[in-house]
Amino acid sequence: MIRLIASDMDGTLLNERMTVPPENAAAIQAAAEKGIQFIVATGRSYTEAKPLMEQVGIKTPMITMNGAEVFDENGEIISTVTIRKQVARKIFHILREQGIYFEIMTMNGTCSDSKMKRIQNVASLLVDLKTTDSFKIAVSLASARLELMAINYVSSYDVILDDPNEFILKIIAFSPENQALLAPVAEKLNALGNLAITASSASNLEINHIDAQKGAALATYADKLGIPMSQVMAIGDNLNDRSMLEAASVSFAMGNATPEIKKVARYLTDTNINHGVGQAIERAIRENLS
Questions:
Q1: According to the model, what pLDDT value does residue 139 have?
Q2: What's residue 118's pLDDT?
């Protein structure tokens, strides 16, 4: 019997417009009426993820930044896992050496040192999600969306490294125009040790401490609720979802998931454009999966 459902956001819970479709929201609410709890598990920061759930009137606990932070439904922090700054300096050096743009996620939100590059990367994501086929239109859409997001722009990431009150939870690197760069960079980063190198799309790398993974965070949260993993279900589409799909007894890959994730998951649902999360939840309620 399923008592807890965890879902990724981008490419999973969110549609091509980066919003939660009403079908998904209705399924989450239907599950709640059956006593099934729901938790978001995303690579996004809390400040980026929360407004998207509020738009559809859903208040939920959240695993954010791939497990670097876990929040209860009231926004109170349950746990935090950071990247040591001396390790972060080495990561920055590797990324800069390859000319790769990256962003830093801290306890105070997401930080960028280039608004132009951030807009370009969000635009590339919108094109990948088939929101539009025009990069020019995507740039316009990205610019409008960024005004609604709590992004902190800094002149240099050294400001964060030098601030004793700042803590780095995740680093995300982008290379939409030259994805071939990412594989060798991932190898160099893995060589540093104690890092979890994943991805939420073909054009990025997500870098966390080895203990900051969705699977571990989900297991810890379920244990806190007294729910065994045999009664937990997870839904995802990309590499940063693998750990929670493996940890949960019941796992669904999205129809738009990567081939690797489809092999890992126990079941397959529809795409994020066709509200596959809602369909998976409805199936769990209907069939009482175990």
A1: 46
A2: 78
- Report the chain (290 residues): mean pLDDT per 10 consecutive residues: 96 93 97 96 93 95 97 96 97 95 91 80 61 53 54 90 95 84 94 94 92 97 96 97 97 97 98 97 85
Dihedral over Cα of 122, 128, 134, 137: its sign = negative
Burial track 117-154 (b if 16+ CB lie within 10 A, e otherwise): ebbbbbbbbbbebebbeeeeebbebbeeeeeeeebeee
What sign does the CA torsion over 183, 65, 156, 151 have? positive
CA distances from 142 to 132, 162, 209 (A): 11, 31, 29
Token output for 133: 């086929």
Q: How far apart are CA 58 and CA 61, in angstroms?
A: 10
Coil, strand or helix at 38: strand
Element counts in the chain: helices (H) and strands (E): 11, 14
Alpha-carbon distance of 55 to 15, in angstroms, equals: 14
What's this model's pTM, rounded to 2 decimal places?
Answer: 0.88
Cα 58 to Cα 67, 85, 91, 222, 258, distances in angstroms: 20, 35, 36, 20, 28
DSSP state for residue 83 in the 8-state scheme? B
CB 80 within 8 A of CB 69: yes
